[in-house]
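# step 3/5: fold
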Amino acid sequence: MGQMQLHPLSWYCAVRKGAMQNMDQKKILSVGCLMLGIMMVIGSFMPVSMSGTAVQNVTVRMVYNISPGVMNAMGGDGFNVVETYDAFSIIEMTDEKANLLENYGYEVKHMPERTMISVPGYYFDTRNGAPSVPQELKAKESAPGDIGLYIVQMIGPVKNEWFDSMVRAGAEPIVDVSNYAYEVRMTPEVAKAVGALDCVSWMGIYEPAYKISPVLTGYDVIITMIGSDIPADSLNHVRGRMSVEKEGTIPDGYIFYGSIVSQSAMEEIAASPYVQYIEPNIIPELHDEMGMQITGGFAWLNDPDGNINTPYRTLGTHGSYANQLGWDGTGVIVGIADSGLGNGATPNAGHNDFTGRVIGGIDLGATVNGWQDEHGHGTHCAGLMAGDTYEGNGLIYAGAAKYYVAMGQAHEAQIFGQQIFEGASASADIPADYTVILSTAYTAGARVHSNSWGSNTAGAYSAADVGYDTAARDSSTNADRKSVV
């Protein structure tokens, strides 16, 4: 064992010998002592069992800024370099060698999640294989040439070349899966080639069971399909097994809202390699969450004398503290997706509080009858954002000096109304593709957008959340982005 450990050290010294004349002698001696110290301490730390066999606890860890020379000096039993990166390396090592590196000042981190996979309803360690799932929600074996869904987990943080090698093999990565894994669509032949890549640590079937939300209790669902080119027969496969309320394209996929006709239909839908997720269809509703208190709160926030009966404002004659600092919405267009706006007409939508600042609107629902507000919620929210009440009702909050009732935070902003809740009952009439909501507002010039509505998913990240986040990120076209600061 002594000879095995000293060989890398001898290699390291030989490499360094030629450079000694051009380097500080003390630095070389220090490095050499470090190498020698590592070798000596390794020998003293190696535990031995009663039979004489070394007992080692070997785990994979991340080590920052470790040099090739140190890695070579540490090499041998209980130390195997898995992969190197610019700032760190992933190394399989014993506790003793990890302690040795830490004693010499290296940052060593455990990677307990490296082999863990999290999918809806399941969390498992790939070292133990895939979890058991109900037989009726287990994928059937794919015939040669048939497309199937797989999970491909890499050996560590994914490098671009690993991803590219998977694509070159013929795989279609769909979405990433924690940790260091992808959901991949491919044939069994391609799967065999991908599984043979050195960068792949584990590969398994993406079971239909993983596609069904663990909180789903009925058949009223949202079904998300992923892919830029979903075959028509796959769309019809879903349509034939549910009563569709609405459907449409979404970024990188397709979405259905409606009711599945039976449990067997649910299982058949989940078996499709183009279906990504089946979750509860929780109908969005209007919200406002103490908007008036938040708006009114600015009447006394940062009041210099702490007395709400005397005005704090020194920079203007009305409005909140933010307005007093000069922020009033001038030059900004605000988009408001809600129950509509006023009487649905420019320039005021029927309200003096909007002082000719309503630039237009649109009805985005399936029932298109104009963007007027028959409920009142949308107009209320527009007032919170951009109401100019000192031109309207002229009422002043008692004891708050010149802070006007229902004063909007951006009282000089222009407004673009969007109706997505229909009629006096404010029934949800929201486009299947949330991108439409933000993209139409963006096209109208809006760079601020209000959405005082939602649904209670108990904190779950739903398809609606994914769609809205994608729409918020990608609301402008590529051409538009070039001109946006």
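# step 4/5: annotate
Residues 25-45 form the longest helix (21 residues).
# step 5/5: archive (pending)
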